[in-house]
Amino acid sequence: MKEFPESNLNKVFMAYQVLYLHVGEGNLELAKQKASLVWDDLQMLDCWYIDDLILLNSLLVLFPLETALEITTMVLKRIDSYGNFERDLTYLKIYFQMDLCLMLLQHQIYELALDKLNVIYENYKQKMSYQMLAGLFTNKAICLLYLNRSVEEELTNLNLLLNLYGDFKLLDSLLKVYENQKSHFRELYQK
Description:
mainly alpha
């Protein structure tokens, strides 16, 4: 790393440092600062490799929402430039967009999150794993809850999907996530 400071190895090392600071030490602020350094380096590159995209996705939630929106938009365009690549990179498009939707939920921007989740569903439902699809149904139900709209279709889809796969552990986990949000919603709006 000292001999070749511009190598990909340095970016990977920095990303591991960021994740360690965030998860291992719980130092979110320092992790965010280091993540912004990774982004600064990547922005300067004309060409991004798939490893760069995976690295960036692992750090996405550490950026401010505006930066995450910018990164996701830029990444989706860059992935499209790999159109003739031998590997299907749709999974990266899904990951970036789903992670961005989680950030929108955290920032309580439910209408935009719901719009993006609907686009993801329409464009990628055939390519998503059942676990990702289940997460999408859960997040759509949360958006709909906060927008005071019916959640029944999404919860029914969630139940049908995970019952079909027999993944009752994931079903219980996602229903708990939804119920926690429902309790939070009641606390906020039922007073």
